[in-house]
Specification:
The chain is an alpha+beta fold. It contains 1 helix and 4 strands. Strands 1-3 form a two-stranded antiparallel sheet. Strands 2-4 form a two-stranded antiparallel sheet. The mean pLDDT is about 85.
Length: about 70
C-alpha cells in the first residue's frame, strides 16, 4: 500500500532548487517499488510533473476490484 507512505527521490538540481529535468508519475512508481511498495501510475493524483526540489503531497486513489457471481 502506498497511501500514507513517504517516498524519497534523488535528482540533480541547480542551487536554487530547479531540477535538471522533472519527476513524474512513472518516477514515483519506480521509487515506490524500490522501497517495496505497490504503486500504479493510474492511482497517483499528480496534476503536473515536479520541476523543483522539495516536499510534495501526492494524492492516491485506490482502485478496488469487485468480484461478481453470475446468477
Amino acid at each position: 500500500k502506498i497511501s500514507g507512505q513517504t517516498i524519497t527521490i534523488k535528482a540533480l538540481a541547480a542551487e536554487e532548487g530547479k531540477l535538471y529535468g522533472s519527476v513524474g508519475a512513472g518516477d514515483l512508481v519506480r521509487a515506490a517499488e524500490a522501497q517495496g511498495l505497490d504503486a500504479r501510475k493510474s492511482e497517483l493524483e499528480l496534476p503536473n510533473t515536479i520541476h523543483k526540489a522539495g516536499s510534495y503531497a501526492i494524492g492516491v486513489t485506490q482502485h478496488t476490484t469487485r468480484a461478481t457471481t453470475p446468477q
